[in-house]
Design brief:
Layout (H helix, E strand, L loop, with lengths): L10 E7 L6 H11 L9 H5 L21 H4 L9 H12 L4 E11 L10 E9 L3 E2 L4 E12 L5 E12 L18 H8 L4 E5 L5 E2 L14 E5 L3 E10 L11 E8 L4 E5 L13 E10 L2 E8 L6
Amino acid sequence: MTTYEDFAGRETLPLWEGPDPVNVPMIRHWAEAMGDRNPIYRDDAAARATGRPGVVAPASMMQAWTMRGYAATVEGPDAGAAAGARELDALLEKDGYTSVVATDSEFEFHRELVPGDRVSVREVVETISPEKSTALGAGRFVTTVRTYTDQDGEVVAVQRWRLLRFRPKTARAPRPRPAVNRDNAFWFEAAREHRLVIQRCAGCGTPRHPPGPCCPHCGSFEWDAAEASGRGQVYSFVVNHHPRHPAFEYPLIVAVVELDEGTRLVTNLVGAEPGEVEIGMPVVLDWLDADPDLSLPVFRPQSGTAA
């Protein structure tokens, strides 16, 4: 009989080449979306001034170059998976580990990618833990290693990816867990105390969100955190109807709220019907206590702005 220990070293994703080569338009879109103004991602001269051959891709894009895309994804949950992955999923589901949450991702970068590179990825199981008791329910941590290679077969990055497969404690599905790392842990710790904080550069004083290790304006690595007033306005929003996740109530209003302090964050709007929400509508902070270990800021209309 196959045991979890038998999966160590087994392939979950055969070598797969990303659909597109590394290219400047995708780099530009990524940098703009992330608010990363580093000129080495868009200006050849600026990149060469640092000793690089020209524009390079942000290291954080590594995984993006091998994403299969929407059409390949909807072929089915097993599309592109190795036999080992399908067998492992079947065993986990048989043992009741029907829910999944990503817990962490660690990258080791060997070199920067440049336009024209073709990136491939292969994934194998590293370890599967014994059953652990967690706040979400009993589960096993599945750790895999993804190796990224270029068109010459040279390793450009290695990613250690860890998921928790678990049996939910309650019939209601738990809220998906955020990815907490060394850069944003302070923010989630403050949220557990019902404090909304904003990371602020200690060099130039510029506030930023989401948190990051370096100021995109002056490049300083020094920062502190200021507590937000909890007031803002709706910068944009969508109403999510489908697909539905059992942890949420629908229709689900997802908004980008611009705080009075100048930063924006993605959040949920509560206490209003979708038809009542307008761009520029004043909103105030509230808190969602998803579970004993997770509190998240949500916003509701300022008194008198919604029916």
